[in-house]
Amino acid sequence: MLIYVRAINPHKYTDEDREFFHNQTEYQEGTPSVARRLKAEMESIQDPDEALRQHPDWALVRFPNGQWLFGHGVNSHGLRVGRGTLVVKDSRGQVRIFFGHVCGTNQFLDNPDFWQFQSLNNFYARVADGRVLREWFPDQ
Predict the structure, then answer these.
(1) I want to staple 34 with a disulfide (CB 3.0 to 4.6 A). Which of 56, 60, 61, 82 is the partner?
(2) Any domain includes 110
(3) Whole-angstrom Cα distance, residue 37 to residue 33?
(4) How far apart are CA 63 and CA 70, in angstroms?
(5) Is residue 13 part of a domain?
């Protein structure tokens, strides 16, 4: 006998999400509506410490040269809505979205010493190298 369990999920996938899932060839994972929601939340926050006060589940990285970024990565493992989505805002004011395999909540943000990031440029070169994550450009 087969038993189907339907998880209660308050998130409603958008038409954009469904089209993205159906036509996805470039990205392993990620959810456009979750990325857009995180991007909108991050755009209005100017201070990284305020970001963590408002969103304790996000992460903050401060680089040796004074630059910083904060963001949130949705773990790819399990059935989380938005899995494989990483959104960050940096000290330049940029909000960037990456889709792919996020191995653990806030991967790349949770242990910057392990990844040996020294600056924003170094972070983006490593994260967006296309091996694990690819940058997603909404509306393009």
Answers:
(1) 82
(2) yes
(3) 6
(4) 11
(5) no
* Alpha helices (H) in the chain, listed in sequence order: 15-23, 32-43, 48-54, 112-115, 120-127
pLDDT (tens, 9 = 90+) of the chain, 140 residues, equals 555 444 545 568 888 888 888 887 777 789 999 999 999 999 999 999 999 999 999 999 999 999 999 999 999 898 888 889 999 999 999 999 999 989 888 888 887 666 788 899 989 988 877 788 899 998 76
Supply the pTM of this predicted model. Answer: 0.86
- Show the domain range for 33: 26-136
CA triplet 52, 14, 86: central angle to 5 degrees? Answer: 35
CA distances in angstroms from 140 to 27, 50, 72, 122, listed in the order given: 15, 30, 23, 25
Number of domains in the chain: 1
In angstroms, what CA-CA distances link 135 with 28, 87, 94, 107? 12, 10, 13, 15
**Is 94 part of a structural domain of the chain?**
yes
